[in-house]
Amino acid sequence: MDIKIFQSAQEATEEAFRLLAAAKEDGATTFGLATGSSPEGLYELLRASDLDFTDAYALNLDEYRGLPADHEQSYAYFMQDKLFKAKPFKETFIPNGMAEDPEEEVARYDQVIKNHPIDFQILGIGPNGHIGFNEPGTSFEVTTHLTDLAPATIQANQRFFESEADVPKQAYTMGIASILNSKQIVLMAFGEAKAQAVKGMIEGSVTEALPASVLQTHENVTVLLDQDSASLLSH
Ligand SMILES: N[C@@H]1[C@@H](O)[C@H](O)[C@@H](COP(=O)(O)O)O[C@@H]1O
Questions:
Q1: Which of 35, 53, 82, 196 is deepest in the core (most CB within 10 A)?
Q2: Sign of CA dihedral 125, 127, 132, 138
Q3: Average pLDDT in the 81-99 region?
Q4: Domain 2-189+196-204+215-221 bears CATH identifier 3.40.630.30
């Protein structure tokens, strides 16, 4: 793992942009994208850039079950709003939160990932160490699946909804095995609320109890931190 600690989230975000642009320059055509506040600044930089994605593919990590693509809190809506409207891709993919048959949806998305192996994957991290929506305890072997959200995740994501009751309780997510297949991974984590998870991910043992710790086993991972998220690291 390449750990880079910056003075601010903004500086770390600028580094994420540089890494993505360099990967693109080197031929990356398929980008794994994440939602949440961590990559928002990156999407802002991409929108303002002159990078052209009309020959590129975007695959998102996850989607809430039960939210249609035009729901303001759906990840499909987030991606349109924050990136795709301004920066069109050749094709974009995201699990369908309204799919009638979860098994079919999971199989469909696994096929999408198989057809479009990811060159460059952006990740955030949940305060409990989740990546995508792979919650603590999820097997490292699984690919796309429907998961029950951990109570801590429902609580953390409540800020985007009117009340806790409005937060979906399930989500589709790429699995750890799918994420590890990406050629290059860049994880962004900012703020004190992430410090414990960041410490576990980098300095703890590789354990399903802290899903992001599996990234220690991948050969091309860069972790971009600000002072607060890095504050519990031993050196
Ligand atoms: N499923 C998403 C994750 O992909 C994201 O990394 C995490 C952190 O979000 P934030 O960046 O807003 O802290 O939250 C959500 O639960």
A1: 35
A2: positive
A3: 98
A4: no
Task: Name the residue of 74, 125, 149, 167 whose CB sits within 8 Å of the most ligand 1 atoms, as the mutation to test its pocket.
Answer: 125
134 CA distance to ligand 1 middle (Å): 11
pLDDT of residue 128: 94
Report the alpha-carbon distance of residue 109 to residue 216 in Å, rounded.
26
Ligand 1, atom 9: closest residue by C-alpha? 36
Average the pLDDT over 68-75 and give the result: 95
Q: How much of the chain, in percent, has pLDDT values that exceed 70?
A: 100
Residue nearest to atom 6 of ligand 1 (CA): 124
What is this model's ipTM? 0.94
**In the structure, which protein residues have their CB atom closer than 6 angstroms to any atom of ligand 1?**
34-38, 61-62, 124-126, 132-133, 153, 157
Domain positions in the chain are 2-189+196-204+215-221
How far is the C-alpha of 20 from the C-alpha of 42, rounded, in Å? 9
* Closest ligand 1 atom to Cα of 40: 11
Tens of pLDDT, residue by residue over 146-203, are: 999 999 889 988 998 998 899 999 999 999 999 999 999 999 999 999 999 999 999 9
Ligand 1 centroid to Cα of residue 127, in Å, is 8
Tally the residues of the chain: 235
